[in-house]
Amino acid sequence: MKIDVIGDVHGCLEELEQLFYKLGYKKEQGIFIHPNQRIPVFVGDITDRGPHSLKVISLVYHMVVIHKRARYVPGNHCNKLYRYFLGNKVQLRHGLETTVAEYNNCSAEMQSTIRHQFITLYEQAPLYLHLPNINAIIAHAGIKESYIGRNDKRVKTFVLYGDITGEFHADGRPVRRDWAKFYKGDNWIIYGHTPVLEPRFLNKTVNIDTGCVFGNQLTAFCLPEEKIVAVPSKQPFVQEKFTTFEVP
User: Fold this and answer.
1) Is 35 a member of any domain?
2) Is residue 120 in a domain?
3) How many domains does the chain have?
4) Mean confidence (pLDDT) of the chain
5) Edge-to-edge strand order for the sheet containing 217-223?
6) Which intervals hold domain Calcineurin-like phosphoesterase (predicted)?
7) CB-based contacts of 28, cutoff 8 Å, min separation 6
């Protein structure tokens, strides 16, 4: 099995298509297929903030659900959009407002289609993906070694939001512990969620959210090759959105 794990897309459709082409995929019947049967895996947060969230939903839905040519795990933005589509009360902020604005500009028929596609995609997705034949776990915000194999509420919170403390930074971002520093497992853990300027490798974990929607790049991590492939973003660069970590 060969996979290409794709970092947080956040509605950046053009960059996603360019990344697929750079990885060697061909566009056939409206989806991207690799001639060597490689499988793309989306690490969550496919919508919000970027310009084409609805088109990204449709593409991922068709690749994952209809054609079964890709895999997907949800992120925290996915969870919030899912709750919005269910009719729950959610605040239209932190990027959700851009997806909802796109949605509100659609016809009633298109709204029904998109809503159905996303709800189906989300409900069929695993909380995180364990691929033992290539020693890999894909989880949106990462996962502790002791949580692997579990799907309870505590694990769900960790996988979607990271190792949050319940406290907040001055700008409103939640304070998160650096769980990757303490990981000692043999599986690769590939995650996103926290934008970094370069993929962050630590203890056989790699953060591939390189902040495409904030103007940096869209990144894929290829296994078993352990190779990074990236394309530059077309969005404006926003320096303050990126997290820097102390060198261990």
Assistant:
1) yes
2) yes
3) 1
4) 95
5) 71-72, 39-42, 3-6, 217-223, 227-232
6) 1-196
7) none
In order of 33, 70, 153, 165, 176, the CA distances from 4 in angstroms are: 12, 9, 28, 31, 27
Where do runs of H (alpha helix) occur along the chain?
A: 13-22, 53-61, 76-85, 96-104, 108-124, 153-161
Q: What CATH number did the domain enclosing 130 receive?
A: 3.60.21.10
pLDDT tier, 247 (very low <50, low <70, confident <90, very high otherwise)? low
Pairing of strands 129-131, 71-72: unpaired
Distance CA 61, CA 9 (A): 14
pLDDT higher than threshold 90 for residue 19? yes
Supply angle C-alpha 39, 41, 45, rounded to 5. 155
What distance in Å separates the CA atoms of residue 205 and residue 131, rounded to the nearest whole number?
15
How many whole angstroms separate alpha carbon 144 and alpha carbon 209? 18
Instruction: Classify burial at 169, counting beta carbons within 10 Å of its beta carbon; exposed 0-12, middle 13-18, buried 19 or more.
Output: exposed
CA distance 223 to 172: 35
Residues in the chain: 248
pLDDT at 246: 65
Range of the domain at 67: 3-241
- Cα torsion 206, 138, 97, 240 to 10°: value is -10
Average pLDDT of the segment spanning 51-57: 98
The average pLDDT across 68-87 equals 98
Burial class (CB in 10 A: 0-12, 13-18, 19+), 124: exposed
- The pLDDT of residue 51 is above 60: yes
